[in-house]
């Protein structure tokens, strides 16, 4: 199995290294036609506005949308999740293009600036029941987005109740920042 990792900006090296630890080959994707050589894709964390500008420059959006539309599995981490959301708020002036496909609204930089980044132990029951792993997962929220709402076909694997000192916006709970988009 070969997994494509969008390699425009951000933590693509770390994702390829994580795949390697699992015995899976990850290949860097920078051009639209390279998507034809992979059956699944990871869009890593980073800075989604910069990543979107680079994706526009390399004319990647149509091929990425087509990839999602074909129902191929796509994983989005942080900025990658923002790419996959159908709707984003808190964008820089002028907005940014999205790939879309994941029926949710995402809020960029929900928790504030880089210095407000934090880690939290999340309860993820499906890890134990479906994967035979531990029931918790250490979530790392680096200038993280929050998922404000999801459509009826989205399975939420974990959520994180926002402590009152971290609430900058009017939502009492938000969902885990990392979402795996399965074929649908
Ligand atoms: N860790 C991350 O990927 C942060 C995402 C970043 N705040 C953005 O808007 O793109």
TrEMBL record:
Q: Which residues form a coiled coil?
A: none
Q: What class of enzyme is it?
A: hydrolase
Keyword Hydrolase recorded = yes
Record EC number? 3.5.1.2
**Which keywords annotate this record?**
Glutamine amidotransferase, Hydrolase, Lyase
**By its UniProt entry, which PROSITE patterns does this protein fall under?**
GATASE_TYPE_1 (PS51273), PDXT_SNO_1 (PS01236), PDXT_SNO_2 (PS51130)
Task: Tell me if Lyase is a UniProt keyword of this record.
Answer: yes
Residue sites binding L-glutamine per the record: 46-48, 108, 142-143
Q: Provide one Gene Ontology biological process annotation.
A: pyridoxal phosphate biosynthetic process
Question: What's an example of a GO molecular-function annotation for this chain?
Answer: glutaminase activity
Query: Per the record, what are the reactions this protein catalyses?
Result: L-glutamine + H2O = L-glutamate + NH4(+)
Family recorded in the similarity comment: Belongs to the glutaminase PdxT/SNO family.
- Please state what the protein is called: glutaminase
Name its species: Citrus sinensis (Sweet orange)
């Amino acid at each position: 199995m070969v997994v494509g990792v969008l390699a425009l900006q951000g933590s693509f090296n770390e994702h390829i290294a994580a795949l390697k630890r699992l015995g899976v080959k990850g290949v860097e994707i920078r051009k639209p036609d390279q998507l034809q050589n992979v059956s699944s894709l990871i869009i890593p964390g980073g800075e989604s506005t910069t990543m979107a500008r680079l994706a526009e420059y390399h004319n990647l959006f149509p091929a990425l949308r087509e990839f999602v539309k074909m129902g191929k599995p796509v994983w989005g981490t942080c900025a990658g999740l923002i790419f996959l959301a159908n709707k984003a708020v808190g964008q820089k002036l002028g907005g940014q293009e999205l790939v879309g496909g994941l029926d949710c609204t995402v809020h960029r930089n929900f928790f504030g600036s880089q210095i407000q980044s934090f880690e939290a132990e999340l309860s993820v029951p499906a890890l134990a029941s479906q994967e035979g792993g531990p029931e918790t997962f250490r979530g790392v929220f680096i200038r993280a987005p929050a998922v404000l709402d999801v459509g009826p076909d989205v399975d939420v694997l974990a959520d994180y109740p926002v402590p009152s000192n971290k609430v900058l916006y009017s939502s009492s709970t938000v969902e885990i920042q990392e979402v795996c988009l399965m074929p649908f």
